[in-house]
Amino acid sequence: MRCLLDAFIGRVIGAFSAPRVLGLCAVSWMPSSVASLAHFSAPRVLGLCALNKSFKRRPSNRGGNQNLSRPPELGNLGGIVVRERTFHRNFEVAFASAFSNVRNAPLENANLREINLSEANLSRANLSRADLSEANLSRANLSRADLSDANLSPASLSDANLSRANLSRAFLSRANLSDANLSRANLSDANLSRADLSRANLSRANLSRADLSGANLGGANLSGANFRNSEIDDKVQNLTPKQVKSACYWQKAKFDLDFEKELKKEPDQQVDCHKWQSPTN
Question: Entry's Pfam families (predicted)?
């Protein structure tokens, strides 16, 4: 399709707070007027039509269509809202569909600050060292994703699927991980200070050397979770027996011997563990 007129592009770019645009051009789902762009809650848009073009199917040598084997480079997408209810409807559908499934996407080092990717499929995506601070990833599928060294403070990850995800050295201070699935996740050396892990599934997760100072573990499933080789020290980690005993199945977790002795001294708590009452626990 033909590119937009320079004057029109200028007006569009002027609305962006971070105009690192990869190539805006006319596409079938572009809003009918520039005024529609004012509905964006944080319009830092980088080549929306370029993304649309990249996500379109292309002819294969065998006939028919096939998807691109590699998703487009997304670059700096800070502040984009994927499912903004006030979008022009056609624009919303096309934009949301482009981002709702970015499985296996290479997004390492990407600036995704404040992005809304709730319910997105980011399974196996490479988000290592990405800036996802204040991002909305609630109910997103991040299973087996690489989030090592990523900044997720204070991101919303409530109800997200992070099973088997690599979160080693991730910065998750004050992150909302309530009801998240972190089973078998690698959280070694992660900063989880003041994070909300209430009712989260931490079964068989690796939490060695993680900073859990002030973290809320209320009702979390700790069955098989590994806390060994952690520096259980008030000045370093601040993991307390009281925190642990506010969780479920802490008896099945793995702790250092010294910490196990402290656990025996701590009074038991009445904890609601109905969520985890299944044959697997």
Answer: Pentapeptide
